[in-house]
Amino acid sequence: MRIAVVGTGYVGLVTGTCFAEVGIDVTCIDIDQQKIENLKKGILPIYEPGLEEMVLRNTQKERLSFSTDLATSIQGCDAAFIAVGTPPGEDGSADLKYVLAVARAIGQHMSDYLVVVTKSTVPVGTAQKVRQAIEEELAARSANLAFDVASNPEFLKEGAAIEDFLKPDRIVVGVASEKAEEVMQKLYKPFLMNGHPLIFMDIPSAEMTKYAANAMLATKISFMNDIANLCEIMGADVNMVRRGIGSDARIGNKFIYPGIGYGGSCFPKDVKALIRTANENGYQMRVLKSVEEVNEHQKSVLFNKIMNHFQGNLAGKTFAVWGLSFKPKTDDMREAPSLVIIKKLLEQGAQVKAYDPVAMKEAQHLLGDTIQYGKDEYEALIDADALLLVTEWPEFRSPNFTVAGKLMKEKVVFDGRNIYEAKDLAEKGFTYYGIGVKQPVSELKATV
Ligand code: UDX
């Protein structure tokens, strides 16, 4: 089989490479010449564990190629996947201009039956717009060609995207014809070895599934953050409560970790877009509006604790920040809570010395020399008034706190991800603040 994947961002590159990995002939297409030149040399635009090796292997086997030429690349393909960006417009709705431009280009250049698959996260009704755009282009050149559209949302987690693609929990495909179903069934057969389902449904339901999945996950996080804040006020420990509820299979023990708010390229954008879509159609997503509100508040929780500890005076203080990316195993800084916290610290006249195992370059683009960057996690601690654990990279999980304590000016830890034990740190002479755990200060209400 042969496919084209348009857009070599995160989703497109992982999708194209994983299809090539199972023996499908894949061309990844992008309008960015530089990006394509780099990919041909094995230089990737993103960091994702295992992806670079997989790109190289499949390029060498000539199952994976890169091109800027959509017109030629879609010839002879069974399917073309649209995986270009859908950035949020000013009003929070997903901007479809890139998706529709690709649809038009496909309509201008296709010469045989093709399934055109939307892979980008797009609002309900987009596949219909894609169909229209292609029809218009075919009509403009009086081409009487059959084609189908399909919706195939991705559920890839950054940092685990390859694993998620190769061994998916489920694959969701929205189709409107048997022929399209057949093509998609053939393409995905190699990924169904683990017995998990390929679920076919109508196109609007597939489009909605993606938003519903992300909105549900964001809801779990905001719910737990709310509970964590209340735990603190009431003298309960959310780590215990989490374990207490997580063993109920109906609730589940995943995605109930409180922290400093969800970030990344998906949750904030998709929650906003779903609220917006509902609103445009005369319906109010009451739960999701609160999910968003809680998340905004949560980004300030760690900062409020810092202010409380230092009695509102951060001027001249130095803070070591461990972790900058929005989550571990990625260099993605989009909507990273670290950015909000750092901005607030700088506004108070504090200094920040940060370290992240992978995202330092990306952070430098955004923060420049407004902060300092440590060579490693220990160097970032030198003369710090406190350590802020912002992203729970595995290498931060078990540091040598005896060494850390000697490097720091004050032995204070603000743990934004609850990865340390208050008791362990107290034994080493540290003052510890977590999220939703018992706090060492009396004015609890003021901190959450
Ligand atoms: C998410 C979805 O998981 C994925 O299925 C979808 O395709 C894209 O969006 P991703 O953005 O890579 O993937 O990150 P994810 O691991 O889901 O984490 C999102 C955010 O939630 C992060 O900021 C993370 O720190 C936060 N989070 C996650 C919590 O605060 N607590 C949790 O228990 C889990």
From TrEMBL:
EC number: 1.1.1.22
Residues annotated as the enzyme's active site: C266 (nucleophile)
Location of the UDP-glucose/GDP-mannose dehydrogenase C-terminal domain: 320-422
Positions annotated to bind NAD(+): D30, K35, T86, T121, E158, K269, R334
Binding sites annotated in the UniProt record for substrate: F155, L156, K157, E158, K210, F255, I256, Y257, P258, G259, G263, K327
Pfam families per the UniProt record, alphabetical: UDPG_MGDP_dh, UDPG_MGDP_dh_C, UDPG_MGDP_dh_N
Pathway field: Nucleotide-sugar biosynthesis; UDP-alpha-D-glucuronate biosynthesis; UDP-alpha-D-glucuronate from UDP-alpha-D-glucose: step 1/1
Sequence similarity: Belongs to the UDP-glucose/GDP-mannose dehydrogenase family.
PANTHER family: UDP-GLUCOSE 6-DEHYDROGENASE TUAD
Name of the featured protein: UDP-glucose 6-dehydrogenase
Species this chain originates from: Pontibacter burrus
